[in-house]
């Protein structure tokens, strides 16, 4: 006896089977169906005939999974949970993103500081050493 109801398991199986047109049908967010679709490449040799390589088939599965998500949810924007983009929210996002970015790439903070210093030096040099090529008007 399975812990998954028969109707759900039937849907999972049907969401893995390629459509008659050759397109792969995976329900939105159905990770299990995506994994079954990938595992199917080892069993079904006709996939190589249709897609050429296993990598191309896996790419088609991934695009089907992601494409359904984008079509149903509109990419990254959620219609079910709208966000009002206030200045405070944007500032919080910026701070959070910067913290995550610097924790992932510790060398990036030093690079950004160095680039900022170089830019300041270039601004100082360019403002003092400007030679006009246009004659002064009388």
What's the topology here?
Blueprint: H1 6-16, H2 31-43, H3 46-51, H4 54-73, H5 87-104, H6 106-128
Report on this model:
The chain has helices at residues 6-16, 31-43, 46-51, 54-73, 87-104, 106-128. It has 138 residues and is mainly α. The chain has a domain at 6-73. The longest helix is centred in the last third of the chain and has 23 residues, at 106-128. The chain is elongated and about 80 Å long. The relative contact order is 0.06. Mean pLDDT is 74; it is low at 1-21.
Radius of gyration: 27 Å
Quaternary structure: single chain
- What sort of overall outline do the alpha carbons produce when their principal axes are compared? elongated
Order of helices and strands: HHHHHH
The end-to-end span amounts to: 97 Å
């Amino acid at each position: 006896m399975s812990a998954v109801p028969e109707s759900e398991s039937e849907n999972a199986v049907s969401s893995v089977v390629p459509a008659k047109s050759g397109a792969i049908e995976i329900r939105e967010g159905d990770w299990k169906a995506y994994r079954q679709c990938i595992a199917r490449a080892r069993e079904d040799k006709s996939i190589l005939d249709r897609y050429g390589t296993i990598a191309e088939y896996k790419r088609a599965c991934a695009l089907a999974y992601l494409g359904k998500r984008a079509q149903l949810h509109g990419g990254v924007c959620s219609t079910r949970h709208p966000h009002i983009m206030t200045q405070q929210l944007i500032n919080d996002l910026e701070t959070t993103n910067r913290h995550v970015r610097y924790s992932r790439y510790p060398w990036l903070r030093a690079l950004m500081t160095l680039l900022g210093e170089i830019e300041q030096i270039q601004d100082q040099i360019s403002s003092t050493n400007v030679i006009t090529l246009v004659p002064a008007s009388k």
